[in-house]
């Protein structure tokens, strides 16, 4: 009789251990996937923003006669639309990170919204340029929020509930 009770207890413990291990593995994989996606989307947002800003700066320096123009296939408007798509994807994963991403997109979108065609190419390009200092701050805030959002769960809980 004791052997039967001991066997049942051992089997129950083994099954419980197996289920717990599966649950932890699934959770760990899910967390890893989420971190990877946040990294991919955050990097893409920074890349698109930096590319748009750099291409417009290059076009301005070309107009000044001090540099080369951006590639002929560059399109600042398309880059802003791509940033909006990335920001929307971030909303599906992390609201705080999405807000920081939205701030970057908004700086570029506001520059486009205020655009009025001009006969002076220098002024025409300059209108599309987002404020570089504000953009740098927004990029820093996105990176900082990424670091907070990708912290391990146990570290996030300690920070949220001191």
Instruction: Work out the number of β strands.
Output: 0
The value of Rg in angstroms is 25 Å
Average per-residue pLDDT, rounded, comes to 85
- The helix/strand order is HHHHHH
Question: Biggest sheet: strands, sense, closure?
Answer: none
Helix content: over 70%
Strand percent estimate: under 5%
- Secondary structure category: mainly alpha
Indicate the low-confidence ranges by residue numbers. none
Distinct helical segment count:
6
> What is the global morphology?
rod-shaped
For the termini, the CA-CA separation is 51 Å
List keywords for this structure.
mainly alpha, 0% strand, 83% helix, single chain
Task: Describe it.
The protein has helices at residues 2-64, 76-93, 95-113, 121-128, 132-149, 153-160. With 162 residues, the chain is mainly alpha-helical. It has one domain. Helix 1 packs antiparallel against helix 2 (76-93) and helix 1 packs antiparallel against helix 5 (132-149). The protein starts with a helix and ends with a helix. The model has no long low-confidence stretch (mean pLDDT 85).
